[in-house]
């Protein structure tokens, strides 16, 4: 057995299952799940058509590197989306298709961390638990940066002690954040680039929620954009991770990419060649269609805007809840303990949410996510409204 397996924490949904064991929800209320960030909107028809037309690809082994048309489509999308003029990605050497960002975020740590010397992986707190699990299984130590409401749910890199920076090999950032929806500004990302040079670490930017935002004129900035504006045309020390799961409502396609520093991409390609995780050819063809089309993505954002408008109107009078900068989560304060709130909400309203504390760790005696819940507004509008109304009735009744 890998001894590091014993260091892994139970996954949030395992904890939720334990918390709600034995609960019998009202039989007359349909179950509504605000728990898992699994988009429920319809998949784009143009992608389904492309997938169906490419099914003969199942008879061939795919290359780990991916086919040239997909890598080119990804490089072109990055250039359009992040304004890359001087820093355009080389689709041959700086782009690698992956089977969703979860697979890549985990695997990149295994490929890049040198456990023969002290190794730390810095991450926001709360966080996507894959960051932590990847660090622990690679033999590294996780270092958590609390993201508090008072600081806009942002990690404060100025608070990292010198001895931590000394051993840091990789820093995870997530913008828009999961679960907070907070954005790292370009200036914050540029400062992190300077820190990466000063302390010799890699920045892994999880940007899989970047295409769900509210202002069409101001999309969330990304790390590639920060590189472009900093004159960092080789994207050194930088890797970005994107996915079609949220952007295009295709979580089951398992399609994303990692792009950036050529040296790191080529090392990761070598790792993944042995890992055996090449994207199926028909998935690649479907992915090309998705990355080349923006109309379905804009329509998707419109659906989310309508849901946030409706749900916030219902909940704001009874909860401390704010519209996030981007993404599809709400991160409200609960009027009672977040675990008690979650269990009772399911028991009385047949409505599922996730306790905030399951997405965070206690640091210096404090867990920044205690007393909050994560609400995933992934269902259709009518169901989101019904769920918000049930939650309001639950709160107004005294929980």
From TrEMBL:
Aminotransferase class I/classII large domain: residues covered: 32-380
Annotated keywords: Aminotransferase, Transferase
InterPro entries, per the entry: Aminotransferase_I/II_large (IPR004839), DapC_beta/gammaproteobac (IPR019878), LL-DAP_aminotransferase (IPR050881), PyrdxlP-dep_Trfase (IPR015424), PyrdxlP-dep_Trfase_major (IPR015421), PyrdxlP-dep_Trfase_small (IPR015422)
Record-linked Gene3D superfamilies: Aspartate Aminotransferase, domain 1, Type I PLP-dependent aspartate aminotransferase-like (Major domain)
GO BP of this protein: lysine biosynthetic process via diaminopimelate
Cofactor(s) of this protein: pyridoxal 5'-phosphate
Domain of life: Bacteria
An example molecular function term from Gene Ontology annotations: pyridoxal phosphate binding
Record Pfam families: Aminotran_1_2
Keyword Transferase attributed: yes
Protein name listed in UniProt: Succinyldiaminopimelate aminotransferase apoenzyme
Species name: Marinospirillum alkaliphilum DSM 21637
